Sequence to fold (466 residues):
Amino acid sequence: MSTPIKLTVIGAGSAQFSLGLVKDICLTESLSGSLISFMDIDPDRLDMIHKLGARYANELGADLRFESTTDRHDALQDADFVINTASASSHQKQRDGRELMEKYGYYHGGRMRQSNFVNLDLMLGVTGDMEEICPDAWLIQSGNPVYQGCTLMTRTSSIKVCGLCHGHYGVHQIARTLGFTDLEDLTWQAPGLNHNIWLTHFYYKGEDAYPILEKWIAEEGENYWETHVAERTHDIQMSRGTIHMYRMFGLMPIGDTPRRGAWWYHTDIDTKKWWFPQPWGGPDTHLARPYFVENLEKRVAQMTKLTSDPSTSLIEAFGSEKTHEQQVPIIDGLVNDNEGQFQVNVPNHGALAGVPDDVVVEVPAIVNRSGIHPIRVDPLPRKVLYTQIMPEVLEMERELLAFETGDRSLLFLDALECEQTHSYNQALSVFEELMEMGGNEKLSEHFMWGPGQEMLRQPVRTKEPA
Fold:
C-alpha cells in the first residue's frame, strides 16, 4: 500500500540533485502516486528538469505526477515535504569574491568567510512562506550552510526542520581504503556539527577498526600520500592532512571536516598539495573549484542534450538503482513508518553533551512515523569539544548575531582575525571592496556601521620610510 505525498523541491534546477531525487522516489513503491513540484527561478533549467523527471518516471513505469513553477508560493501549496537545495549565491559570484580577496593577499579567500547572508535570508523566506502556506510540512534543508541555517530556522520558526549532508559517507571511503568489502558489516558513529564531525565508533564485523587504521597508517600511509592521485576534488578523507588532524585531536575527522582545518593546511597551493592529494590539493583551491564547476556545466549540457533527444534511454543514462541520499528514505520513514537510522542535523536537546540544546548538531537518529528521534551519543573527548566544536559554536553565534543586528563591524572582525591578515589596512581594503562588489547590494544595505564607528573605516597612517 502506498501513501501519495506532495513534495516540493526548491532550487530544482540543480545539476546534481533533482534527478537523483526523482530516481529514489520512482524506486520507492510506498510513495507511488506522489506529486513532485519543481520550483526554480531559472525557467530553462526548470523546464529541463521537469521534462527529464517525467520521462524517467515514465520509462520506469512509476506512478508519479510532476509540475513546475518559478513561483515559490505556488510550489508550496498543499506541500507535505519541502526540500530546499537552492543557493542564492552563484558559483560565479563566489569566484569573483575569491579573486578579489586574492588580490589583497588572501590565497583562495584564506579562511576569511564570504557572508552567508543571502542564503540565510533565503532560508528564512522559505520558512516564512511555509508557516503561511503549509505549516504542517517538513522542511528538509539540503543546501548550505546547513549548520548555521538550520540553527537559525529552528530558533525563529515553528516549521519542522531537518538538515542533511552527505559528508558522513567519508566513513565508507575509509572502509574501502582499508579493504573492508561489505559495508553492511560496518558500524560507526560520527557526531558533531555539520562539516565538523568526528569518528567516535568504528567497527567492522563487530571488531574495533581503529587498530586496522593505525596499521594502514604505519605500513601504507606514506606511500599512499606520495602516490595517490585524487579522482574527485573532494577526495581528501585519507589524505596526509586528515591523518595529521587525527594525530592532533585523537579522532578521525570525517567528510568535509578536514576542509575547515587550521590555517597551516591552507596557506598556499604548494602547502595544500602537501596536505591534500594531487592534482588539486583538495577542493578549495584555484585549481579545484574551476574543475568542479566545469563538471557541473558538463552535466547540465548532457542533461540538455538528453532533453532534446526523446529517443535516448534515461535509464541507460542515469541507471535504475537508488542513490545513497537520505531524503527519500527519511520521507518514507515519516510517512509509511518504514523505520531507519540516518545521519541528520537537528536541534541538540541533549543528544551531544556539552553543546547548547538550541544549537543544531549532526548526530544519528531513528526516523519513523512518530518523527525524527536523535540518538544520545557518547560525549566527544574534551580535546575535540573544546578545540573544534565549541569554537565553531561561538563563530556561528557571532554570525547569527551579525545577521540579526546588521552590525557591519562583526563582519569586519572576520577580516581582521583571518590568519592571512597582516595589517589593519589590508583587512579594511578587502572588506570595503567586498561589500561594494556587484551583487552585494542587499548585503551592503543590511549590514551598517553603527553610531561612532566611522573611526573603524579610517586606515592606519604611519610615517613613510626614510
